[in-house]
Structures are given as structure tokens and as C-alpha cells.
């Protein structure tokens, strides 16, 4: 294990390097790297064996169009095992080949997808350009209820199948971030035959061409997958079997790994404590900056008034909120979406600081206008988020004319409650959203049709600034556009940014082949069991 100081030093060096890399990628035509996995593992891979990955909740459907967040322990983690990412963003911020060899463009307008030759779904049907087009056309249909529908429907009519391994997409305007957005929003391709055979979403069988095939699904408890012998990248996957165990409570997940009942769980260093040094246990940091955020409903309710959003920011000391959330001191509240190591960071635009006097003035002004500050906090049932919600409620009740109600839901139901039903004032999603660089997450969060824009924030100015940033390959112009974005974030407060953290895995020390994507999801085809300890 690295010392704390050395670990932080390496993390800082990585972040500066990653930021420089991401900036350099915007200065030339977007490059899609083929799947060269140098550094995927330093030990000699071992074939065979079983691993168990703990997730916080089960999936609701095997529909490849229903995706939600490239973070470990979420629904996409399971879908990836069966379908495989068509392309993914690695932990250096580079779009990398997965089921496809490449997704590339020389002008950011016309993009070419090259698939690997002779791939087949596990039902024997071809994984070809027609299959990809079918999946994307289906996701573009509003009836599919895909979270990525607004994104895909903006370009799916311009798909041309060139040959079985090739299709092109001509965008209506330049988008230098298109490949990264595909990796985030629509990376999974299922057998069209299997999708057509399902009368209802609940009837969809997971027929993909990924590294594993589903053999057993005990809903709400676990699922078991077997090695796909027809996977394109032989001899991968190395594991014979991969299992997912559903354990909602964080402390129970940790105990299961420490006691040897599971191979790994995703979390944060504050959660692990002394368990990180237990016999047979190691940690693996995913060196990415992530933001803790909550969504503010701007379609209805008190947060439609920007004064209410400012009052909320002013009312709560976000560093103390993070301490209540993590039970650890020393956090610094982020000043804006980009961190200080980002090439886009603008020190001139800062979110409102903790100011109780200002908060009370705003609460009073809202009340005088017939808008008492009474909010519904929606989050899911885990101990960390319960503490966070309780702290917000406690602080708000200390102000005259402010109150809060807490509503807890199952993690898998949070999207339905918040994004679909808009039944919240503030919705707190666990985990962090990757913000190493700008895209694709910043547009997902802040654009009018963004997939992660649960609060339905709409701003023509913001849309224009985001489009400006993605329509140019000039780094100075990109930075200038993101300065505008940060100014709008600071003045309009479209969401609540309250912390920043890096993700980490708690895992058994004989876990090899740990290759995370940008969001932290492991590329499971590389995993293997070491003969002895291979994690230090």
C-alpha cells in the first residue's frame, strides 16, 4: 500500500496529466484508439475461477437501451458483462475500442464506426452494422423510454450502413465529444432477434456478444454468469464464472468482502476505515475526480425561483455537509463544476458560499412573496445518504420559514421517482459523477435535453455555450466557452454541487486484471484470480 502522502501526490500528478491529455485531445481531430490494453495487468493472467462483485441494487430490465451512469455497482455494470461496451472511455479519459474497433471522425461531423469482424451474439445471429442501427433506432423511439432518447434521436436518421462492419453517422453540427457520449449513453447492443421476440420489456432476454452469458438471475439477490466461449477477444475473459450479489447496505457490503464472501465492492476510502488493511484485503484507487451532486427540481416547486437555489447554497456549509455524509473532516467545498486541476477551471466564477445571514434574507423574501421554503428531499436507503439528508433537514429547520421532509426510496427506483415522475424538490443520488474533463457529463447535466438533467434546468445561454465548446477544436475557444458555462453555473445554480471525491475498490488481494473505465466500471474480460496476493 502507498503511504497516504504518496498516494495523494500520485493522484495530483495524475490529475494534472489527465487534464493536459484531455485538453490536447480537443486540439486535433478526435482519435478513436483501437483496443490496445497496454498496462491492463502486470501479472500473468490466470484462466479459470470465480469472482463475486457486490452491487447496491438489482437491475429492473435487461433492455440495453435503459442505461444509467457508468459507475461501478450500478445497472450498467451488469449490462456490460453481457453486452460489452461498443466503445468505452478509459481512466485516462481516452475513448477506447470495445466491441467496435473504432469510432472516429476527422471533422467532428461525419463519424465512422468500424466493428470487429465475424462477431456473433450468443444466439448465433451476427453482431453487425445492421444490428447496431436497429438498437440505436429502437432507443431513439420515445416508446422505448430510453434515457438517451433525446441524444440518439438527434442523429439516428443520419445513420448509413456501409457494409456489415461499417456504418457512418453524419451529425447536423460538429460535436467533438460524440464518441465519448456514445460510450456513456448508448454503448450496449443486443441481439435484434431477442429484442423483437420480447412482447414486453420484462420479457427481454439478455442476448449479447459480451464476455459473459447469464445463467441464473435470482431477482433482488444475485445473478450468475458464465464465460462466453465465443467472445471476440480470446483467451479473454479469463474467469469461468462471474457473480453479482445485491447488498444495499454499505457496511454489509464491506463486511462481506472482508470476510471473504465476495471479491470486491466499489466505494470511497471514507467508508472502508480499518477494513482496508484487514488480512487478505486491499484497496484499488480509481484516480478520477468525481463530484457529489444533487438535483434541484426546476420544472415545478420552490426551486423554480433562483432565489431559492441561492438560499439553499447559502444556508448550508457544504464542507460540514460532507463531514456529516462521510463522517470524516477535511473536505473543501467545490467552487464550480471543474476542479482546480482542470484546464478549464475559472477562478472568477464561484458558487455561493456559506452565508447564514444571506440565506435568512432570501428565505424571508420568498415567504413575503408567498413562497415558503418547504422542500422534499428524495434519496435512497443507505446509511451515508440518510445522514446527509438528515443533516440538510436539521440545518434548514434552524432557519425561520424553512423546513424539509425526507423521502427514502429503493436505489433502483430513484430514477423513476426523480427523473421520470419529477416527484422531488431535491434529489440526492449516491456516488460521484466523473468530471476529469468536460464531456460527456457536463452536457448530460446542464443541457436542456441532457440525460442527467433530472431537474429539467433549461437555459438557451447554457445550451449555446455547451454547443460552442463542442463545436470547435481550438483549445482557446473551448476554454472560453467553458468560462461562460462556469459563470452560468455560479449564477443560475442548476444543480447542487456539494463535494468532490475519488472512487476506490475494496477487494480481495488475489484480484487481478483490474482495468477501470472512466466512470469506474471494470472491464470484466480482464479480471482473473491470482495464485497468490497480486494487489498491494
Automatic annotation (TrEMBL):
It is found in: Periplasm. GO terms for cellular component: outer membrane-bounded periplasmic space. PROSITE patterns: SBP_BACTERIAL_5 (PS01040). The keyword Signal applies. Pfam families: SBP_bac_5 (PF00496). The keyword Nucleotide-binding does not apply. Keywords: Signal, Transport. InterPro entries: Peptide/Ni-bd, SBP_5, SBP_5_CS, SBP_5_dom. Residues 95-451 form the Solute-binding protein family domain. Residues 1-40 form the signal peptide. Belongs to the bacterial solute-binding protein 5 family. PANTHER family: OLIGOPEPTIDE-BINDING PROTEIN APPA, PERIPLASMIC BINDING COMPONENT OF ABC TRANSPORTER. This is ABC transporter substrate-binding protein. It comes from Rhizobium leguminosarum.
Amino acid at each position: 500500500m502507498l503511504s497516504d502522502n504518496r498516494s495523494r501526490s500520485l493522484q495530483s500528478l495524475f490529475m494534472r496529466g489527465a487534464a493536459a491529455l484531455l485538453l490536447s485531445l480537443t486540439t486535433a481531430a478526435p482519435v478513436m484508439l483501437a483496443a490496445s490494453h497496454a498496462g491492463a495487468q502486470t501479472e500473468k493472467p490466470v484462466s479459470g475461477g470465480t469472482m463475486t462483485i457486490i452491487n447496491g441494487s438489482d437491475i429492473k430490465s435487461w433492455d440495453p437501451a435503459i442505461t444509467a451512469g457508468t459507475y461501478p455497482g450500478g445497472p450498467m455494470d451488469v449490462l456490460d458483462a453481457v453486452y460489452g461496451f461498443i466503445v468505452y472511455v478509459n481512466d485516462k479519459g481516452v475513448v477506447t475500442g470495445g466491441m467496435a474497433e473504432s469510432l472516429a471522425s476527422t471533422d467532428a461531423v461525419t463519424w465512422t464506426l468500424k466493428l470487429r469482424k465475424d462477431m456473433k451474439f450468443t444466439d448465433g445471429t451476427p453482431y453487425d452494422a445492421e444490428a447496431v442501427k436497429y438498437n440505436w433506432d429502437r432507443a431513439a423511439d420515445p416508446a422505448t423510454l430510453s434515457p438517451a432518447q433525446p441524444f440518439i434521436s438527434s442523429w439516428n436518421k443520419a445513420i448509413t450502413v456501409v457494409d456489415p462492419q461499417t456504418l457512418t453517422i453524419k451529425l447536423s453540427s460538429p460535436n467533438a465529444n460524440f464518441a465519448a457520449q456514445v460510450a456513456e449513453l448508448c454503448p450496449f447492443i443486443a441481439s435484434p432477434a431477442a429484442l423483437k421476440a420480447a412482447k414486453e420489456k420484462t420479457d427481454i432476454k439478455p442476448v449479447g456478444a459480451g464476455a459473459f452469458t447469464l445463467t441464473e438471475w435470482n431477482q433482488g439477490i444475485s445473478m450468475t454468469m458464465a464465460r462466453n466461449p465465443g467472445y471476440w477477444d480470446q483467451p479473454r475473459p479469463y474467469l469461468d464464472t462471474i457473480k453479482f450479489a445485491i447488498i444495499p447496505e454499505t457496511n454489509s457490503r464491506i463486511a462481506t468482502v472482508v470476510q471473504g464472501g465476495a471479491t470486491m465492492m466499489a466505494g470511497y476510502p471514507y467508508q472502508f476505515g480499518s477494513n482496508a488493511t484487514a488480512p487478505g484485503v486491499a484497496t484499488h484507487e480509481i484516480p478520477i475526480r468525481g463530484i457529489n451532486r444533487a438535483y434541484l427540481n426546476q420544472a415545478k416547486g420552490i426551486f423554480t425561483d433562483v432565489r431559492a437555489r441561492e438560499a439553499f447554497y447559502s444556508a448550508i456549509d457544504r464542507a460540514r455537509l460532507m463531514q456529516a455524509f462521510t463522517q470524516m473532516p477535511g473536505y473543501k467545498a467545490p467552487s464550480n463544476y471543474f476542479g482546480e486541476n482542470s484546464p478549464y477551471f475559472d477562478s472568477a466564477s464561484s458558487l455561493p458560499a456559506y452565508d447564514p445571514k444571506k440565506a435568512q434574507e432570501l428565505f424571508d423574501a420568498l415567504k413575503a412573496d408567498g413562497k415558503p421554503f418547504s422542500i422534499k428531499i428524495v434519496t435512497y436507503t443507505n446509511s451515508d445518504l440518510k445522514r446527509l439528508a438528515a443533516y440538510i433537514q436539521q440545518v434548514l429547520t434552524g432557519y425561520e420559514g424553512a423546513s424539509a421532509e425526507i423521502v427514502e426510496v429503493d436505489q433502483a427506483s430513484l430514477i423513476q421517482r426523480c427523473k421520470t415522475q419529477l416527484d422531488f424538490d431535491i434529489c440526492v443520488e449516491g456516488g460521484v459523477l466523473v468530471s476529469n474533463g468536460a464531456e460527456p457529463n457536463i452536457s448530460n447535466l446542464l443541457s436542456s435535453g441532457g440525460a442527467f438533467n433530472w431537474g429539467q434546468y433549461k437555459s438557451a445561454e447554457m445550451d449555446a455555450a455547451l454547443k460552442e465548446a463542442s463545436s470547435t477544436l481550438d483549445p482557446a475557444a473551448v476554454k472560453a466557452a467553458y468560462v461562460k458555462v462556469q459563470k452560468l453555473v455560479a449564477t443560475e445554480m442548476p444543480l447542487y454541487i456539494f463535494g468532490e471525491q475519488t472512487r476506490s475498490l475494496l477487494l480481495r488481494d488475489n484480484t487481478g486484471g483490474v482495468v477501470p473505465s472512466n466512470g469506474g466500471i471494470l472491464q470484466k474480460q480482464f479480471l482473473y484470480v491470482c495464485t497468490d496476493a497480486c494487489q498491494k
